[in-house]
Design a protein that fits this description.
The chain has 155 residues and is an alpha+beta fold. The protein is built from 5 helices and 5 strands. Bound molecules: zinc ion.
C-alpha cells in the first residue's frame, strides 16, 4: 500500500522494509525485534502497535509527500540532504556503491557517476528523474515548515 513511499524513503538512505506478504502480527514482531518504526494507515494496527510499545506512525496524508512529512514530524528529524551515494536501492533496499566509469556505459550522461545496488545489481545515476526527486524533497520541506510555522508562530 505504501510501496511508493518506501521507495522514496530509501532514496533518502533509510533502511525500509516493505513486504506485502507480511501480516500484521509479523509486522509488529519485526518492528519490535529490530527496533524499527512501523508506518501504517491501518488504525487498528496502529493501536495494537501502541499497546505493544512498538514505535509507530499513523499515516493520514493523501500523497507521498504528505505521508513522508508525517514520518519526519513523528520521528522528530529533518529530512536528510539527498545524496545518491547515501541512498539505498529504491527497488530492494540494498546499499549502493559507486561504479567504476569504465565498468558501466551510461548512454545519456557518460560522465555522470553511476551507482550499483550491491544486492540486485540495478544501476542508478543522476538523470531525468532527479528533478522530480528534488521537487518531492522541496514539497516535504514546505509541508514541514508550514506546519511548524502555524503551530509555533515563526518561520
Ligand atoms: Zn537493489
Amino acid at each position: 500500500m505504501h510501496g511508493s513511499l518506501a521507495r522514496k524513503l530509501r532514496i533518502y538512505g533509510y533502511d525500509v522494509i516493505y513486504d506485502t506478504k507480511l501480516g500484521d502480527k509479523d509486522l509488529l514482531n519485526k518492528a519490535a525485534e529490530e527496533d524499527r518504526w512501523l508506518l501504517t494507515s491501518d488504525r487498528s494496527l496502529y493501536l495494537t502497535a501502541l499497546k505493544r510499545g512498538v514505535k509507530v506512525c499513523l499515516l493520514l496524508g493523501g500523497d507521498d509527500a504528505s505521508r513522508a512529512a508525517e514520518v519526519f514530524r513523528k520521528i522528530g528529524i529533518e529530512p536528510p540532504t539527498l545524496k545518491p551515494e547515501a541512498s539505498r536501492c529504491p527497488v530492494c533496499n540494498g546499499l549502493l556503491q559507486i561504479c567504476n566509469p569504465e565498468e558501466v556505459r551510461v548512454k545519456r550522461k557518460p560522465k555522470s557517476t553511476s551507482y550499483r545496488c550491491i544486492v540486485c545489481g540495478k544501476l542508478y545515476w543522476i538523470g531525468s528523474h532527479w528533478p522530480r526527486i528534488m521537487s518531492f524533497d522541496r514539497r516535504i520541506r514546505q509541508l514541514l515548515k508550514g506546519r511548524y510555522s502555524r503551530r509555533n508562530g515563526y518561520g
